[in-house]
Write a structure and sequence with these properties.
Blueprint (H helix, E strand, L loop, with lengths): L2 E2 L2 E8 L2 E3 L5 E5 L2 H11 L8 E8 L2 E10 L4 E5 L2 H6 L8 E6 L1
Antiparallel strand pairs: 1-2, 2-8, 3-4, 4-7, 5-6, 5-8, 6-7
């Protein structure tokens, strides 16, 4: 877990998914092993609804965001803004390399 001026870095591969019908959100799920590590280190810093501020990077796009703990899935979710999905040509179910910092 490298540390730099952005914070502690995490990397993983994941498949974007869509939550619900038209107008639903798009996410990638943080692997459970990384989620456990983050919860052990940062749970006390979570804001409402298990929110942790983060900086995310996919491809050439980097943005300020947050990850959200989903108690039903027992993992953090990283929301994918439309601008990121379009600029990086992300597709539901197709693997993407994700880097984020807390």
């Amino acid at each position: 877990m490298p540390v730099n001026e952005k914070g502690i870095q995490y990397e993983f591969m994941a498949k974007p998914w869509h939550s619900g019908g038209q107008g639903g959100w798009y996410f990638v799920s943080v692997p459970v092993s990384i989620t456990k590590e983050i919860r052990e280190s940062f749970k006390q810093e979570e804001e409402g609804w298990g929110r942790l501020k983060a900086i995310a990077k996919i491809g050439h796009s980097e943005w300020k965001t947050a990850i959200w703990f989903d108690s039903k899935k027992a993992t953090y979710l990283l929301p994918l803004k439309a601008a990121i999905r379009v600029s990086e040509k992300l597709e539901v179910g197709k693997d993407v390399q994700v880097t984020f910092w807390i």
